Structure formats: C-alpha cells, structure tokens
UniProtKB/TrEMBL annotation:
The gene is LOC114246947. GO terms for cellular component: cytoplasm. It is an enzyme of class 6 (ligase). Belongs to the class-I aminoacyl-tRNA synthetase family. This is cysteine--tRNA ligase. Keywords: Aminoacyl-tRNA synthetase, ATP-binding, Ligase, Metal-binding, Nucleotide-binding, Protein biosynthesis, Zinc. Gene3D superfamilies: Cysteine-tRNA ligase, C-terminal anti-codon recognition domain (1.20.120.1910), HUPs (3.40.50.620). The keyword Phosphoprotein does not apply. It comes from the Eukaryota. Its EC number is 6.1.1.16.
Length: 511
C-alpha cells in the first residue's frame, strides 16, 4: 500500500502548472488524466479531471452552520457528494483526502445563544453532534478531517493580515476588514458578475466588497486582533481552514449550488490573492437544490423543511439514497411521495431479483442440466462497460441504475422461463455484480430492523399462503384466492411485500 502524507500532497501542487482551457477563466492542470469528465461552472462545460497523483485527490466540502437541525435538503446534498466520493474511490481507485468545515461561529448561532441564554459554543456543539448522527443514519461517510472555525481563529487572523499587507484588503473605520474586489481582476470567475453583494454600508469602498472580519458588537463574542476586536466573516473561514490543511491548491471543492455565489466566488478570490496564484480550487462540484412541490427550494427560512429523523420514519436510508441515484446531482430534485415511492419500487425490484436469483441458483429440484449461457455473460459485460463509461461522464448514476434494471429484466426472462433454462454460473455473476455496484454506491440492501416477525416466521406464512394459493388456482376457488390476496395486503401493511410471479414464493422487507 502506498504511504503518503499531506506534506507530500501539498508539495505536488507546486509542480503542477496550469494552462487556459478553451479561452475560459478555468485553467487545466498539468498532471495525470483520470479519464473522468466533470462539469465545471467556470468553463461552463465538462472538463477532464487531472490530478497531480492519479490516485490521490484532496477534497473539501462546505459543512453546515450548526444553529439548527439539518433537514432533508442538506441530506440530499451530502448523500450525493458521498455517492460521488464513493465512485471515485471504488470505481477509479482514487484515494480521497477529505475535509469538511463546520461553521460554529455565526450570526445565527450567536443570536440563538442570546435568545436562549445559552453560550453559543454549546448551541454549536449540540447541533454538530446531531448533524453527525443524521449523516450516520444516512450512511454518509464521515470526512477524515473536520475543521471548526472556533479552532482556527489564529489561522484566519494570519490569513487576513497577509491580505491587508498585500493591499488586497482594507480596515474600515469601525474595525471591520473588507476584501477589495477592485484589486482582484478575476472577481466573478465562478458566476457571471452580478450587481449584488453583501449589504452596502458607509464602511465599504465597493458594493461587491465582502467582510473578512466583523467588528465587535455589544454582547457578542469577540477575539482581539491588531486591527481591533471582532470575529471572522463567513467566507474567510473556509479559505483559511483549507489552506491550513491542503496548502495553496485544492483538487476538489464541493457544496450546494446556492454556495456558488457569493460564498465560493469569495473563497476563490481571497485564496488566489493570499497565495498569489491564478487558480485555487481546480474543480468545483455543486449539488442542485432539493425542492418541494412547486419548484420552491427547501430551506429553514421558508419553513418548509422535513427533518432527517422524520424522513426515516416513513422511508429508510436506502430508499432516499436510491432517489438521489435516480437524479442528476447537478440539477434540482423535487421531493414528493411519488419520488420516494418510485425509488422504493426500484429498490424492491433489486431485492426481489436478488432473492429470486438466489432461489434459482440453489434450485435442487430441477432436472435440467446447467448450461453456460454466452448471451447472459455478454449482457453482463455490456452493462459493466456501459456503467463504467456513464460514471466517467460526470458521475451519471441514473444511467447506471437504468442499465442495471435492463440487465435484471433480461435475466428474469431466463429465471422465469418455462421450461427453465438453468444457468447458475452467469446468473450468480450478475447477482454479485448488481450487489457490488449498489453497495459501492452506498446502499446497504439490508432489511429493516424494526420488523416484528422473524425471518423464519415470515417464511412459514409466505410458504403456507403459496401452497393455499396454488390449490385455489388449481380448483378455481376464487373465495380462497381472495383470502390469499387479503393476507398479501396485510403482510404489505406490515412492511413485508410478497412476490407471486415465481414458482417459488419470495418476499422482501419494504420501507
């Protein structure tokens, strides 16, 4: 196993030279092409992913501002980013050195602390703890490195001081510090320049200038600096923490699309100015919003949120992750019961197939000799190749799922053919492939732990019902068939879905 350290990773960035990409402001790194193409908001097109080391990528995600509970809008962002990281690691053999920033000093946290007469640090710790529990419940891998603003005040102060010394920032009369956007010619790189910005005041030279440091207000926490008492602005926090961990260049910076401007724009500007470089983050990955019906963004301010524990009362983590896999990470996803039911239906198709295929593979009653079907193996090979290509083009998981469903459907025709064509070897390989790829996407494919009946008892009921149903079909006893349907529906209400489409009964746990 290759051993590396962050000093080595950091030093590689100085070897990598940059060149313009098709007359845009994005600069293509010199290094090792991975074969992956990802959409880049600066180039406004897909661009090749090139790394200094073809098997190591530095990755920073903007984490939560911990003043309230996370909701499923946050969940969709972090689940989709988790899927992308898993793809890079599992399919392309890229080690991800991941970091996430936690904003634990912020206006909203301070306000909540004052209103509840609780120290702001306790507010932040409470909601950060809750956030990690929520992420674990969704099977989102925890980053290797966690940076908290409260633990990096010294780094932030030094970062700001260098910008002041380099004449890229100025101290206002009240002791606040602003980044001077007029001094940075590439401001507006990530998003077309807008006539907007942080609220104007008499302290700012330009409307687009943004606060690096906010002067002290009564009753608010503060830190002493050479330019006065106060606390850091939001944008400077990520830049300082990333620079502390990864140095002067970062491979991938990720977050929600709402952070593209002004947060990520400001990060890129102040980081380039600080390090005196042309490009700080080589790749920006932005996840689309989770909308409620009517194309409205789910947000705390609109009071239209659903908490993660509330979601998991109705649907399990695999179902939510499948919904994320069925949509493109870059675009908005409209949350609805219909979306979740579709995701659950797709998930159940895979569960039923795995169960049916396992029964088929272990069929001791068949008198047919096994055959080695080239047709099935070719379908498997085509699917493997098509899925790998789809993942190389901006992590197209929706196409992968559709390809798997096609493979599943074609294989089901063999499994359920009459007379049965017995092909245990290729069917086994297909089951292993489907389980492998879904597991690599982060699905657990496990039954719910809250089911009341044990597997043995469910098997007994399902097999008994199956025998009764076959006799009812044979004798055309419609009253008995109706009773079997009632048992099926009752079992479904208890989260056990029965599949009658095969000679041998099968069942899966739902939701």
């Amino acid at each position: 196993m290759k051993v590396f350290n962050l000093t080595f990773v950091r030093s590689l960035s100085h070897v990598c030279s940059l060149k313009p990409y098709k007359d845009t402001k994005w600069l293509m790194p010199n290094g090792n092409p991975t074969g992956i193409y990802v959409y880049n908001c600066i180039a406004n097109q897909r661009v090749p992913v090139i790394l200094n080391d073809p098997h190591i990528a530095t990755w920073y995600s903007c984490g939560p501002t911990v003043y309230e509970s996370a909701h499923i809008g946050h969940a969709s962002c972090y689940v989709k980013l988790d899927i992308i990281q898993r793809i890079l690691k599992s399919f392309f053999n890229i080690k991800i050195v991941s970091a996430m920033g936690i904003t634990d000093i912020d206006d909203k946290i301070i306000k909540k602390g004052l209103e509840s007469k609780t120290h702001f640090t306790n507010i932040a710790k409470q909601y950060e703890h809750e956030f990690w529990l929520d992420m674990a419940s969704l099977n989102v891998a925890k980053p290797l490195i966690i940076t908290r603003v409260s633990e990096h005040i010294n780094s932030i102060e030094k970062f700001i001081q260098r910008l002041i010394d380099n004449n890229m920032a100025y101290v206002s009369k009240n002791g606040s510090v602003y980044f001077d956007t007029d001094k940075f010619s590439n401001y507006g790189k990530l998003q077309k320049m807008q006539d907007s910005g942080e609220p104007s005041d008499d302290e700012k030279r330009n409307k687009m200038d943004f606060a690096l440091w906010k002067s002290h207000k009564p009753e608010e926490p503060y830190w002493d600096t050479p330019w006065g008492k106060g606390r850091p602005g939001w944008h400077i926090e990520c830049s300082a923490m990333v620079s502390k961990v990864f140095g002067s260049q970062l491979d991938i910076h990720a977050g929600g699309v709402d952070l593209q401007f002004p947060h990520h724009e400001n990060e890129e500007a102040q980081s380039c100015a600080y390090h005196n470089i042309r490009q700080w983050a080589n790749y920006w990955i932005h996840v689309g919003h989770l909308n409620v019906i009517g194309d409205t963004k789910m947000s705390k301010s609109l009071q239209n949120t659903i908490s993660i524990p509330d979601l998991l009362k109705s649907y399990n983590a695999d179902t939510f992750r499948m919904a994320c896999l069925l949509t493109n990470y870059r675009y908005s996803m409209e949350f609805s019961n219909q979306l979740m039911e579709t995701a659950e239906s797709v998930l159940n198709k895979f569960k039923f197939f795995i169960t049916d295929a396992t029964i088929y593979i272990n069929n001791n009653a068949t008198s047919v000799s096994a055959v080695y079907s080239d047709h099935i193996l070719k379908n498997l090979q085509k699917t493997e190749e098509a899925n790998f290509e789809a993942l190389k083009v901006d992590f197209d998981t929706a196409t992968c799922i559709n390809n798997l469903l096609t493979l599943l459907s074609d294989t089901n025709k063999i499994i359920k053919s009459d007379p049965c064509e017995y092909c245990p070897v290729p069917v086994t390989l297909i089951v292993e492939y489907i389980v492998d790829i879904l597991t690599k996407f982060g699905l657990k494919l496990q039954e719910s732990e809250d089911t009341v009946l044990s597997n043995a008892m469910i098997n007994t009921i399902v097999e008994f019902r199956h025998s009764v149903r076959l006799n009812a079909i044979s004798s055309k006893n419609y009253e008995l068939l109706s009773a079997c349907d009632i048992v099926r529906d009752k079992m479904k209400s208890m989260k056990v879905q029965i599949n009658d489409s095969h000679k041998t009964p099968s069942w899966v746990i739902t939701k």
